[in-house]
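Reviewer comment 2.1 asked that we show a complete input and output for one of the modelled complexes. We chose the magnesium ion case, as it is the one discussed in the main text.
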Amino acid sequence: MYLKQFKAQHYRNLQEFELEFDPNVNIFIGKNAQGKTNLLEAIYFLALTRSHRTNSDKELIAFGDEFANVYGHVYKSQVDLTLRVLITKKGKKVWLNRVEQAKLSKYVGQLNAILFSPEDLELIKGAPALRRRFMDQEFGQINAEYLYFASKYKQVLQQKNNYLKQLAKKEAHDLLFLDVLSDQLAGVAAEVVVRRYQFLTYLDEFAQDAYKSISSSGEELKLRYHPSVADVSEQDDTEIVYHKLLANFKQNKQLEIKKGTTLVGPHRDDISFELDGKDAHLYGSQGQQRTIALSIKLAEIQLVHQLTSEYPLLLLDDVMSELDHERQGALLSYIHGKTQTFITTTDLAGISREIIKKPKIYQINSGKIRLAKEN
Ligand code: ATP
Ligand code: MG
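Response of the prediction step:
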């Protein structure tokens, strides 16, 4: 798939624009704070209806304005689509082929985008919450059921936790109602856990392959899923996971009431990344962690392709110049001709031009985007 036309109004510092992108490579050059990340974020937002940088959509509206709009025209192998998201201070609305969609899950997934920025190193280095967010965001954009169950899980978890808090404070007493909530939660959780296993197994395979292609070291990368319910395994189907979770909730009922919160479930899961059996979170060098993060992103491209038969857009924010020429070459040959790619950089000199054939080059200056004279 590729994004042919892209239009935005009142999006952060970007002046209103309408662009026609190259189906292969688009490069955006600009000094710091001119709007490069804002532009990639706007494309990502068009695809996922959420930002990679903030959970507060309001921040995306240009200072002093009341709303922001992003529009895109997407070409896929079978169809072309028009997409639109309107962001207001009260919430957002989405349109697919000019028809407003009441459910975000009908919209998300029509356009797929994978974004890679230096902050993605945190996926390896940072806290487990970031890895869960990664799973929810990335699996959610390729699988509508995952998106549905992950958000349903959050909703039921909140309900159960609220009730546990009331029980803890003795403001509520109905343990049967708690069982009903636990039962519901275990059902939804099982759907999430089984899909996490499934997608991470694919991702592991693709990431191993990508790591081999972009690193010359010969180490073996392994992704491992750590569901918080200890006795769950990859072979378990949703029914079995449901029963194991339910057993856990039963066993820990009093403890959960005492703590006023749910102790196990997808909200406590984690993933680890191992190089030759050593956890890279603890032992990986900065360079190894960066190569892992990049491999995961490349693996996601394959995962999207595996599940949707289309290649997603690849958004590379400020990462090309951080890779040496050998890795730039390995990266570009890995994705060559498959994904429409958007690259931001402060300086074209950091990017090896001989590797990228005929990119479309833009300048971004104080939020104004125009074609560069280098074209
Ligand atoms: P760098 O090279 O440092 O990463 P950049 O070109 O990626 O820079 P952006 O992150 O896109 O820069 O930000 C550009 C500017 O947008 C910043 O100066 C920021 O203050 C401004 N900005 C952020 N949010 C808004 C908003 N809601 N309204 C107007 N301007 C905003
Ligand atoms: Mg930036």
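DSSP finds eleven helices and 15 strands in the chain. We note this here for comparison with the apo prediction described in Section 3.2.
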